[in-house]
Amino acid sequence: MNITTYTRVHKLTPTQRSHISELESLALRPKRINELNDNFEMENLVNNIKQTMFQEYKSAYDVRN
Predict the structure, then answer these.
(1) I need a surface site. Which of 13, 20, 39, 63 has the fewest CB within 10 A?
(2) CA–CA separation, 60 vs 39, rounded Å?
(3) Inter-residue contact 61 to 32 (CB < 8 Å)
(4) Alpha helix segments (H runs only) across 1-65
């Protein structure tokens, strides 16, 4: 399924819309969603990306002397 504004509003569950919104807030736009993208997988993806970005930010700005 290609993700468009229409499918975001009408064909996705509220949980899926929430996960897609979080991905978009991280500057990631998923192009397709299929039956393999269940809520558990999407939630783990969002959490893993946020954790990775946080760790990269922390290591980049960590001032240790």
Answers:
(1) 63
(2) 32
(3) no
(4) 5-10, 14-25, 39-61
